[in-house]
Amino acid sequence: MSKLNGKTALITGSDSGIGQATAIAFAQEGADVVITYHTDKEGAEETLRQVEQHQRKGMVLQVDVSDEQAVAQLFDKALKEFGTLDILVNNAAVNGSGARVADMETEVFDRAIRTNLYGTFFCSRRFIQHRKQQGGKGKIINVSSVHEEIVSAGTAEYCASKAAIRNLTRTLALELAEDGINVNNICPGMILTPMNQEAVDDHKVRKEKEENIPMKRAGKPEEIARLAVFLASSDSDYVTGSSYFMDGGLSQLMGQGA
Question: Measured between alpha carbons, how far is 74 from 49 in angstroms, rounded to an integer?
């Protein structure tokens, strides 16, 4: 279990859900981890505890990825502590509000775009600058969503931000190929995380939603984390600009029943 031995990863939003599972999986594979949170310090400290259980080094930092200066400070602190960063996982995000566009406040739309899209941009830019200073190489993994392809009413701000991340990923893949920096997307479907808290808490709600998934079950954060390990490791050195859908077949239903 050493696919990431000697590597250091920064994972945004690693206080819970997919980010937390990814941090733990990376530590199991030998990586040190910079753990970030926005408000859930207790969750981030639990992630750190589990990283350290695997005899890896971690640090916890608070950040609002929508804030350019806060991201700059995050990288300054992480680099001061670890000296280098080899892997970036852009995972921090806010969910859709449920409001339709005609009723949506500008601040709601802006919050999702700034967190989900600008946050990915701010972190990626600083990571790329660092990797170029180190002579290249490195991995960027963007946690997007099936909603970069599948839209639903009441989530315009979320769907728009995730679709934009897809093309940001693809553009970066072209820009960075000669530097040996791989950039890929993971597109989760229904995963049992705080973003799907109602389904986590209510078995009836979960079963109703799972009926729409060909595999008839929700995914687990640990399943996403295993894909992240592949994309962070040398196993994926010839993979860039790709979107990996992990959704139990949900995205295959687009257009069905039309």
Answer: 20
> 184: helix, coil or strand?
strand
CA dist., res. 198 & res. 153, Å (int): 18
Q: Taking residues 219-229, report their average pLDDT.
A: 96
- Three-class SS state of 123: helix
Rg of the chain on CA atoms, in Å: 18
Mapping DSSP to helix (H, G, I), strand (E, B) and coil, where does residue 87 land?
A: strand
Read off the pTM. 0.95
256 burial via Cβ count (<10 Å: 0-12, 13-18, 19+): exposed
- With cut-offs at 50, 70 and 90, classify the pLDDT of residue 1: low
Contact 46, 60 (CB under 8 A): no
* Residue-level pLDDT at 204: 84
Is pLDDT at 254 greater than 90 in this prediction?
no
Q: Which amino acid is at 202?
A: D
Question: Which amino acids are annotated catalytic?
Answer: 158
- Could you give the strand order of the β-sheet that contains 8-11, starting from the edge strand earlier in sequence? 58-62, 32-37, 8-11, 87-90, 138-143, 181-188, 243-246
